[in-house]
Amino acid sequence: MKIDKKIIKELNEYLEEFNLTEIEIAEKDTKIKVSKNIGTNINQPSVVANNLPTEKDITENNQSIKNGIEVSSPIIGTAYHAPEPGAKKFIEVGKKIKKGDTIMIVEAMKTMNHVPSSSDGIVKEICVEDGQPVEFGQTLIVLE
Q1: What's the CATH code, domain 60-143?
Q2: To the nearest whole number, what is the mean pLDDT of the chain?
């Protein structure tokens, strides 16, 4: 199989332009996936087969280990702090929350997914901005 290097270069440019960690294109029987090596400071793309992220990849993506209980994103998507623009945020730093309370919404494929807290606690840190893209396993908040 001959791989067109121009396609790989073009996909790499999209990674940089849109600040993505991974992009994939499929045409007929050919599938090309280009991703950044998140564990290093070098932003060189690598071509990989259909691989799902491992626990190690997720840990490296969340490089700083926080003190407290971390609540992570169950899916890839866009995180929102409120149910709609201009509405009251689900959580604030210092707010006491209970297990099951909605902490954020992660939108994926036009579906709004409420993310529940995995335990009781006080919000110590909100780790993502409103409207920020998030990865699977990325820490959203830290509880005390």
Answers
A1: 2.40.50.100
A2: 79
Determine the Cα–Cα distance for residues 74 and 115; give it in Å rounded to an integer: 8
| The two structure tokens encoding residue 49 | 């087969």
50 has a pLDDT exceeding 50: no
Residue 2 CB neighbour total at 10 angstroms:
5
Q: Quickly tell me which residue has 């939108």 as its tokens.
A: 107
User: In the chain, pLDDT over 70 holds for what percent of residues?
Assistant: 77
Q: Are 86 and 53 in contact (CB under 8 A)?
A: no
d(CA 19, CA 112): 23
- In this structure, which amino acid lies at residue 51? N
pLDDT band at 17 (very low <50, low <70, confident <90, very high): confident
Task: Give which of 95, 81, 82, 102 is closest to 124, Cα–Cα.
Answer: 95
pLDDT at 55 over 70: no
Coil, strand or helix at 5? helix
Structure tokens at 95: 């707010």
For 38, the token pair is 């998140």
Q: How far is CA 105 from CA 64, 91, 141, in A?
A: 23, 11, 12
